Amino acid sequence: MRSIIDVPYLKDGRWKFLLSVARSTAGTWHADEIELIRQLSERIYMGVERSRAEAALRASEDRKAFLLSLSDSLRPLRDPLEVQRVAVAALGLHLKVNRALYFEVQADGDTVRTGPAYLDGVAALPPLQRMSDFGEVTAQYRRNESSVAHDVLADPLLGPAVTDRYAAIDVRAGIGVPLLKEGRVVSVIGVHQAKPRTWTATDVSLIEAVAERTWEAVERARAEAALRESEALMQALIENLPGGAVFVVDQDLRYLIAEGEAITVAGLKSSDFLGKSIREALQEDLVSEYEPFFRKALAGEHFEHEHKSHEHVYLTRGVPLRTAGGEVYAVLAASFDITARKRAEGESREADKRKDEFLAMLAHELRNPLAAIGNATQLMKYLTHDDATVQRPREVIERQLQQLTRLVDDLLDMSRLTWSKINLQQETLSLATMLQRAVEASRPLIDARGHQLTITLPPLSTQVVGDSTRLVQVFGNLLNNAAKYTDTGGHIALHTAVGAEEAIIRVRDNGCGLSASLLPHVFELFTQAGRSLDRSQGGLGVGLALVRSLVKMHGGEVEAHSAGLGQGSEFVVRLPLACSGDALEHTSAKNVTDATTTIAPRLKVLVVEDNADAAEMLVLILRHKGDDVRLARDGPTALEAARDFQPQVVLCDLGLPGLSGFEVAARLREQPECRGTLLVALSGYGRDEDRRQSQSAGFDHHLTKPVDPEVLAALIDQRRLA
Predict the structure, then answer these.
(1) Which residues fall within 8 angstroms of residue 167, CB to CB, at 6 or more apart?
(2) Whole-angstrom distance, CA of residue 464 vs CA of residue 115
(3) Is 462 left (phi over 0), alpha (psi -120 to 50) or beta?
């Protein structure tokens, strides 16, 4: 080249490009040549700009068309994984890359799970990777920056360790776009090229746009999936609530959900609730009933409420629904139709009540003949005390009578305990005195079987709080059991130890013992040590169940120990000691002067009893004592006899023909001549409510048949000496 001309093109004061023209010969460039070249440069620039604009327009239209097509493809998809698969496949094809894929970062913030991928000539990535293995790339993601690498081997930000990892997965160029939620990377969309590639800004912006649309579609699909699961769960809940209903109310107490058979049963529809407040949807009485419970749940508490509607009973349970941040936004309430259960419970209670009444009636009917037998043996004792041929049979009858009476008492006591109808007469007791009474009660059986009894009692000052009668019953039962289940001539020990806060009473024997299989069940109702055909030891299997219940009522514990069959048994009772400030109340019976040693007046006694045998024996015993005795067989006759006879003592059965014993007592109290009369109720019923009813009717005492002759004599002697 011998001559050259350079013509720059300037636009808006900026140099856009330079047009250079050269000739092979030397020469001077004329003005017209220079102007021609200048015009040519301007036209060239305008053509280039027009081409660039057209290319940009085409690229923009292609980008818009691609993104529109992608959105159309993603919109109907409901599976989050399918959304990811379609998005990366479209992106990979559009950019003509070797790999496009979706990553999800796990909860630990470092583990990355590989999702669906588009692959073209490269292998799939491992299912799990670590973000921390990719150095500066990870740092860019955490700054919410896209990572762009045109050639990983030439990128100064990537060290050898990172480039080696990229090489292992066939990556020479790539772009990664992160998604952050609450400052934490949760997912990444990336594209990989197996050879170096110069990425344009358009490429980066396109991937970012795809990432944004994909994330939105994934979240929408997940929300829809969660909603479907929630609806399926709700439908399953409704289907498994026969006769029930499910409700959701928001913070304004407006119904968001109301579904279930209970709504139909009430003659309503779901539409009668949805979008309405409880004040708009419910009657006023139901609003006042349920609003406090809904507000309680909105305050973060659970609730449970029973409601009776027409012939149905519903149990409603409510719980607060919370956002991810823990704020309550609604209340979920499920109503269950518990009508059948309530009916069954009522029938069960009624059956138990009938059983209880039957046991009481049975005891009453048993006690009438027992009373007659008891009175007869007592009379035999008076009339034949020096006849050795009669004494032995009489003693047998007395022992068997005591056993029968104890069986009836145990059965009734267990029934009362089942219904929580035993009321303890609490007082501060001397533990030693109470244990002595239990020993005295059990002594006849222990002596009859020839056992040796060893007793260690606490100091008289050791006190417990309880019902003297019931505690004597507890230790009497344990001693009787030891006597029954120990062969003749055995050893029984009653030992007491006193600790800082409790007394420990042990009843030990060397009898038949307890098997390992029986030991855990020994305090259960109707459990016995043996069920042999002969049932030589008798009993109903309620004694130890009674012991456990009564001890628990006194705040104590009882346990059984045995090394096995033939190794004896030990029962340990722990009772809390009375507080040191409690005063000791003596519960021993009042001393009664023996009528045989004191000249006492003869009493007028009226016996009112419809059972002929029991009445005859009782009259004979009282007459043997020297009293003037009259007999009435029914209520009206008793009232007439009382007016004529003016008795000082009336012994009255409660189950009388004509008028009940309660009515007889009430009418006797109305007669001036009987207001000071000692009225004693005789009954086969001995429940606490029976005693209260007797007292209300005007009786001074309530004795349960068969009446202990000594107790009856003591009551009459008290009146005699008054």
Answers:
(1) 152
(2) 75
(3) beta
Query: Cis omega before residue 576 (within 30°)?
Result: no
Cβ 580 vs Cβ 501: under 8 Å: no
Strands lying side by side in the sheet with 569-576: 452-456, 491-498, 502-509, 569-576, 557-561
- Which DSSP state fits 133? G
- Residue type at 388? A
Which single residue is written with the structure tokens 């239990």? 438
CA distances from 343 to 174, 312, 376, 527 (A): 73, 10, 49, 31
Q: Give whole-number Cα distances, 44 to 14, 49, 51, 58, in Å.
A: 16, 9, 11, 21
Predicted confidence at residue 399, as pLDDT, reads 66
Domain boundaries, the chain: 3-68, 75-225, 241-337, 343-418, 427-576, 604-721
- Tokens 């009282």 correspond to what residue? 622
* Strand ranges for 161-215 from DSSP E: 173-181, 184-193
Same fold, 241-337 and 427-576: no
- 282, 285, 290, 296 alpha-carbon torsion, rounded to 10°: 120
Q: Are 606 and 651 in contact (CB under 8 A)?
A: yes
Please report the beta strands in 68-224, taking only residues with DSSP state E, as ranges in sequence order.
Answer: 99-105, 111-119, 128-130, 147-149, 173-181, 184-193
Amino acid sitting at position 421? K
| CA 79 to chain CA centroid, nearest Å | 39
The predicted structure's pLDDT at residue 535: 35
d(CA 368, CA 609): 10
Could you tell me which CATH number the domain at 427-576 has? 3.30.565.10
In the chain, which residues have pLDDT < 50? 530-540, 581-599
Neighbour count for residue 398 (Cβ, 10 Å) = 17
d(CA 392, CA 407): 23
Architecture per CATH, 343-418: Orthogonal Bundle (1.10)
Which amino acid is residue 238, in one-letter code?
I
Cα-Cα end-to-end distance for the chain: 160
678-683 and 701-704 beta bridge pairing: parallel
- The CA distance from 74 to 79, in Å, is 10
Distance CA 660, CA 671 (A): 17
Backbone phi and psi for residue 322, each to the nearest 5 degrees, phi listed first: -120, 150
Determine the pLDDT at residue 125: 93
Residues 6+ apart with CB under 8 A from 46: none
What pLDDT digit, counting tens, does each position of 657-716 carry? 889 999 999 999 998 888 889 999 998 777 778 888 999 999 999 998 888 777 888 888
Fold of 604-721: Rossmann fold (3.40.50)
481 neighbors 487 (Cβ within 8 angstroms): no
Q: How far from 583 is each of 94, 428, 462, 498, CA to CA, in Å?
A: 98, 7, 11, 18
Residue with tokens 């209880």: 356
Structure token digits, residue 210: 């795809």
Those residues whose C-beta lies under 8 Å from the C-beta of residue 687, and which sit 6 or more positions away, are 360, 412, 416, 421
Q: Which CATH number fits domain 75-225: 3.40.50.1460, 2.60.120.260, 3.30.450.40, 3.40.228.10?
A: 3.30.450.40
CB 239 within 8 A of CB 321: no
CATH number of 241-337: 3.30.450.20
Q: CB-based contacts of 624: which residues, under 8 Å, 6+ apart?
A: 379, 382, 383
Residue identified by tokens 């991937």 is 207
Instruction: Report if pTM > 0.85.
Output: no
Strands 303-309 and 173-181: unpaired
- Cβ(404)–Cβ(366) below 8 Å: yes
pLDDT of 533 reads 31
- Note the pLDDT of residue 367: 66
CA dist., res. 61 & res. 428, Å (int): 100
